[in-house]
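Weekly puzzle thread! Below is a chain. First person to post its structure in token form gets bragging rights.
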Amino acid sequence: MTGFNFDMLFDVFPNLSYLHMGSGAWKEIENYFHSRGMEDMALVIHKGVDNSTAGGLISKCRAACPRVRWKRGMWTEGTEDLWVSEPL
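Winning reply:
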């Protein structure tokens, strides 16, 4: 997984609206984070995404990568990021 990021994914697939990652992919991501000393991750979600979808996504991240501490934020064009008060 060297050099992979979501910006690259959306450059290649600009109309992507759904991404399903199997358990093997989650394990690879978790191992990648830990091999680089990344234990705290922030997931910034567009403010237009409904709260139940955003909460479900962060719950899946936490369940799939339990050794990583996740923080959720929201963003919208032209404003400063807003961090949701959730424990890491």
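Puzzle host: Confirmed. Bonus trivia for everyone else. Helices lie at 6-12, 23-35, 51-64.
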